[in-house]
Design brief:
With 183 residues, the protein is mainly beta. It has one domain: Sandwich (Jelly Rolls), CATH 2.60.120. Helix content is 5%, strand content 53%. The strands form three sheets. It has a five-stranded antiparallel β-sheet with strand order 8-3-12-5-10. Strands 4, 6, 7, 9 and 11 form a five-stranded antiparallel β-sheet that branches. The longest helix has 9 residues. The radius of gyration is 21 Å and the shape is elongated. The two termini are 27 Å apart.
């Protein structure tokens, strides 16, 4: 088999060693970097709220894009120790008095806008079911902490992701970093 340049000029072949290993000089990038730099589909949802009381939903996302919404990281700052529960697949209509959040596109030249419903509120109501995807235990500090979601969280079209404060009454600032992609 002969492997040649992918641009059709046929000038560059692939060298193979005696041990049947391909010799390459390669540039690699993460999928998240590719989606941001090449497709302009990476976003940051900023949430600043003080949940009303215990186990209140304070942030809600419903993906309406044709592609999966993939959450890679969450940055948190809390005024006191708290743990945040992340739930997938809740049903119902997000109620209370939620405020629409417009996620920031992380590629200034993209011009694309996130597809979905993005809310924040001290007490989003009307949701039920779903499953706990992760819990973040955050000790209060003067600094924010970036939590990498090891397996990422994938939210398919018309599915939901919601965030709950378990203690409540603690001022918090959260950034949810996500991108859209389907292979």
């Amino acid at each position: 088999m002969i492997i040649e340049s992918g641009v059709g000029d046929g000038r560059y072949g692939l060298e193979v060693t005696r041990e049947n290993m391909a010799k390459t000089l390669a540039v690699t990038q993460t999928l998240a970097h590719h989606v941001n730099a090449d497709e302009g589909e990476a976003y940051a949802m900023h949430v600043s709220v003080t949940p009303t009381s215990t186990t209140d939903c304070f942030a809600y996302i419903k993906n309406t894009d044709a592609n999966d919404l993939v959450v890679e990281d969450v940055r948190l700052w809390l005024a006191a120790s708290e743990y945040i529960e992340i739930r997938l697949g809740e049903v119902g209509t997000a109620g209370g008095a939620p405020t629409t959040v417009v996620p920031t596109n992380l590629n200034a030249g993209s011009g694309k806008v996130a597809s979905g419903t993005f809310y924040q509120d001290p007490d989003i109501t009307g949701l039920s079911g779903g499953a706990v995807a992760d819990r973040i235990y955050h000790a209060s500090s003067a600094e924010s902490t970036l939590y990498n979601l090891t397996q990422y969280i994938v939210v398919p079209t018309n599915q939901t992701l919601s965030f709950y404060a378990q203690t409540g009454t603690t001022p918090l600032y959260m950034v949810v970093f996500f991108y859209y992609h389907t292979e």
